[in-house]
Design goal:
Length: 372
């Protein structure tokens, strides 16, 4: 039986797929990690339980002699200061949400540091994430702040990793961290020289940590890198402190201006209230004076008694006629006209004429008289 070439290729591909599936199942059943796959915290070997050391180099970035020297240095650090520092390298931290979560979980699961002082340090390097994380216990924060840790990562580890000097970056970071928390611990010269990318080529040093022009490279370059990082951290801390003081001064100035504004507003309100008070008092006084004078006027008006006609005394009609006659006589006398007489002067006559109250009528001689 001869198979068609296309059918032969499809059967070959199916056979290869089946073989790969079987191999994958076998690897998962015996617990063999998939190359470049996920690495959980439980998959990281604990160096204290494995061989009593401090380094778990899963990606083999440290050569055995250099790893042994760094282990001896970390053992001396723990013996003289009780500070425990672990160095871990992993392929990736994908099961965890972030490399920081992976590092924190690993730190707590291993219990790095003494229980009484919580003085542990964990430097974790993830190859796949291209990330460095440094976790410290609360006891370490008393002598090394988070800003100091970040400065060491930026100046002693990251520049070396960017140039693929992973071994030098790990050793330089471990020495820098140890010198930041325990500067009294002497660093072996052979280990300090490993912290440099090339002890004889200063041009490969990052500009942030390279010696200044005219300055010779110290006998222990790693110590110089640490001192440079600490110096820059202190300078940054001073700058932060100056900025904080400036912000505090500005805040106090704003508070002072706000207090002055409140004071002036209160003074204006007091003056306005006082002015309105005087206006109210003046208006009340004016109203009282007006009420008083109005009351006095009403009292004086009520004292004038008006006598009605019915209460007045009756006058005798005869007396009234006599009074009227006398008034008419007085009015007529005021209008008398004197007429001229003859020159012999033997006799004279006069005539009364003028306006009077009478109608000008005549009398026929009727009447009577009598002596007094």
């Amino acid at each position: 039986m001869v198979l068609h070439p296309s059918r032969w290729r499809s059967q070959s591909i199916s056979s290869v797929g089946l073989l790969l599936s079987v191999l994958l199942g076998l690897m998962l059943s015996v617990g063999v990690p998939w190359p470049g796959g996920a690495v959980s915290v439980d998959d990281v070997p604990n160096p204290r339980q494995t061989y009593g050391g401090w380094i778990s180099d899963s990606v083999d970035w440290l050569t055995p002699p250099h790893e042994a020297q760094l282990n001896d240095f970390l053992t001396t650090l723990e013996a003289e200061t009780t500070i425990e520092m672990a160095v871990v390298t992993v392929a990736n931290t994908q099961p965890s949400a972030t490399p920081k979560d992976f590092t924190t979980t690993l730190f707590n699961q291993w219990g790095i540091g003494k229980v009484e002082t919580n003085n542990g340090i964990l430097m974790m390097v993830s190859q796949g994430d291209r990330r460095v994380e440094v976790e410290i216990g609360h006891g370490i924060t008393e002598v090394m702040s988070n800003r100091d840790v970040q400065n060491i990562v930026d100046t002693a580890i990251i520049p070396a990793f960017k140039h693929e000097k992973y071994e030098q970056g790990i050793i330089s970071g471990a020495i820098a961290l140890s010198q930041a928390v325990a500067p009294e611990i002497a660093v072996p010269a052979s280990l300090a020289e490993l912290a440099l990318w090339d002890a004889n080529v200063n041009s490969e040093l990052p500009s942030a940590v390279a010696p200044a022009q005219g300055q010779s490279t110290p006998e222990s370059p790693a110590l110089w890198l640490t001192e440079q990082g600490i110096r820059e951290a202190k300078q940054e801390e001073q700058r932060q402190q100056r900025r904080a003081e400036k912000r505090e001064a500005e805040r106090q100035a704003r508070t002072s201006r706000a207090a002055e504004d409140r004071y002036y507003r209160q003074q204006r309100q007091v003056r306005l209230t006082r002015y309105l008070g005087w206006v109210v008092i003046g208006s009340a006084i004016a109203l009282l004076w007006y009420s008083y004078f109005h009351w006095r006027f009403d009292q004086g008006h009520q004292q004038v008694r008006v006598v009605p006609l019915s209460d007045r005394p009756q006058i005798n009609p005869l007396e009234q006629a006599i009074n009227e006659h006398h008034r008419a006589t007085l009015r007529s006398l005021s209008t008398i006209t004197i007429v001229g007489s003859s020159s012999s002067g033997s006799s004279s006559s006069g005539d009364y004429s003028g306006g009077s109250d009478f109608g000008g009528g005549s009398s026929g001689g009727d009447g009577g008289g009598g002596d007094w």
